[in-house]
Write a structure and sequence with these properties.
The chain is an alpha/beta fold. It is 50% helix and 21% strand. The structure holds ligand C2E and calcium ion (2 copies).
Length: 476
């Protein structure tokens, strides 16, 4: 060890070494503090980081077990934040995250912990809320409401003004959690539920959620495998005109998983969530072209048959390869684009409107036609729709169900038909189950129908049989 204070040769005490050492020590302390800070805090927002949050939650859980006072963890995830980073760059995204942290801070008590877990995920820990778990959950929900309201206030950053929303999952403790990670996982699971219910929501963790999450993961896995093995089939639902002739068919996808038919509403949604809809959608398009080519070549379709309608999911339409893929498939099967109708829904228009319009215009220029599916259930503005190359409106099944007899007005159906006519579009009604519905639609100007009144979706053989039979009977 070097002596702190040494005698010099001349006998004078030498203090330089000590000064150096003191400087060294403070330097080391500063470094140590810096390292400690970096280990526990997020350098961007200066909020606690995941590591610190875990340690802190662990302590608070132990405390709650001892005192019997319930607390809650709120898991906050911003909706569509990735779009901001992708379109405006990380510096803008970073500023937004800093401001977000400040805003969250203003909404909670001084003793509550706010942490940034990473990316656009934040966590709030509220401890010692109540002696009852129900009251703690209520307090946490109220707090979550306040946080959401604060997040929804516009953010002005540089020249941009952002409107954000978030989804919040809540888990109350102590309850069935051994470690802090269990508690965070529960709040994360609840957050996913909130997102699945449509964004900008709050959801409280319950025991069944774990099972549902597991079921969902299993479904994703099975779906992955099914796509690799092409384990899907297509069915075809006839579309009819007012004279009872077949004018086309809608292609609908089917999946038998482990011997059980999975509803398309379930597996298409799962495919959309995992982006497996891209390979699945390609398979559906290719297969639809192949089937249509076969029917055409064998002359199996009546003269009244115009086109095959294929459902296109938003992610599939937005994919940069979509135009190339669909045109290649149509060409390589020697079909005309006019023989395909692309069924899109209003949810497509949540994306960049200019890009969508231009894409639709290019495809429409090549002679593809577009039908707007589930029309009336979304909320696109009319002024926007009228500038798009839409050829057909498909009246949603829920409105057709409202037609009770052919005398009483069904206002939404009437309005949709009138609007379609004013915009010069064709109109088809889906979910037509009874003849009085068909009559009502006909008397109000809708001349094309699809529904169980005519036929369920059919396998290829059944469809061709239906067409033959229909042709023979309409000839009489
Ligand atoms: P969608 O596009 O609105 O399809 C119409 C749904 O209504 C089909 O259900 C069809 O079987 C059903 N349907 C037809 N006529 C009637 C009727 O008279 N009464 C009643 N109650 N229902 C009728 P499905 O096949 O279960 O499909 C559900 C949804 O799944 C579709 O709704 C569509 O959003 C999606 N989907 C199905 N196949 C595909 C596909 O190949 N690609 C994509 N992207 N989505 C698909
Ligand atoms: Ca459809
Ligand atoms: Ca529909």
């Amino acid at each position: 060890m070097t002596p702190l204070l040494s005698q010099s040769e001349t006998g004078q005490p030498q203090v330089y070494g000590l000064l150096w050492l003191i400087r060294d020590i403070s330097e080391i302390k500063r470094k140590q503090q810096q390292i400690e800070y970096q280990a526990n805090f997020d350098s961007l927002t200066r909020l606690a980081n995941r590591r610190f949050a875990l340690l802190h939650i662990e302590k608070k859980m132990a405390h709650a077990r001892r005192t019997g006072k319930y607390g809650a963890v709120l898991f906050i995830d911003l909706d569509h934040f990735k779009n901001i980073n992708d379109s405006l760059g990380h510096p803008v995204g970073d500023k937004l995250l800093i401001r977000m942290g400040e805003r969250l801070n203003q909404q909670v008590r001084a003793e509550d912990l706010i942490a940034r877990l990473g990316g656009d995920e934040f966590l709030v820990l509220l401890d010692e809320l109540s002696d009852s778990p129900e009251a703690a959950a209520q307090y946490a929900s109220d707090c979550a409401e306040r946080l959401l309201a604060a997040i929804r206030q516009p953010f002005d950053i540089d020249i941009h003004c952002f409107h954000l929303s978030a989804s919040i999952g809540i888990a109350v403790f102590p309850a069935n959690q051994d470690e802090a990670t269990d508690l965070i996982r529960q709040s994360d699971t609840a957050m996913y539920h909130a997102k699945a219910q449509g964004r900008s929501g709050i959801s409280l963790y319950t025991q069944n959620m774990q099972q549902e999450t597991q079921d969902k993961l299993n479904l994703y896995n099975d779906l992955h495998q099914a796509i690799r093995q092409q384990a899907f089939t297509l069915v075809f639902q006839p579309q009819m005109n007012e004279r009872g002739q077949v004018t086309g068919a809608e292609v609908l996808c089917r999946w038998m998983n482990r011997g059980i038919a999975v509803s398309p509403d379930v597996f298409i949604r799962a495919a959309e969530e995992t982006r497996l809809i891209l390979p699945l959608g390609q398979w559906i398009l290719t297969e639809s072209c192949r089937v249509l080519k076969r029917w055409r070549q064998a002359n199996q379709l009546p003269d009244s048959f115009r086109r095959l309608a294929v459902n296109i999911s938003p992610a599939q339409f937005m994919d940069e390869n979509f135009e190339h893929y669909v045109t290649t498939q149509v060409n390589s099967h020697r079909l005309c684009p006019a023989q395909l109708e692309l069924e899109i829904t209003e949810s497509i228009f949540l994306g960049d409107k200019d890009i969508i319009r231009r894409k639709m215009e290019r495809l429409s220029g090549l002679d593809f036609s577009f039908a707007l599916d589930d029309f009336g259930t979304g909320y696109s503005s009319l002024s926007y729709l009228q500038h798009l190359p839409l050829h057909k409106l498909k009246i949603d099944r829920s409105f057709v169900m409202d037609i009770e007899d052919n005398r009483r007005p069904a206002r939404i159906v009437d309005a949709i038909i009138q609007m379609g006519q004013n915009l010069g579009m064709d109109i088809i009604a889906e979910g037509v189950e009874r003849d009085d519905q068909r009559q009502y639609l006909l008397s109000h100007g809708c001349r094309e129908y699809q529904g169980y009144l005519f036929s369920k979706p059919l396998t290829e053989d059944e469809f061709l049989e239906f067409v033959r039979h229909n042709d023979a009977s309409s000839a009489h």
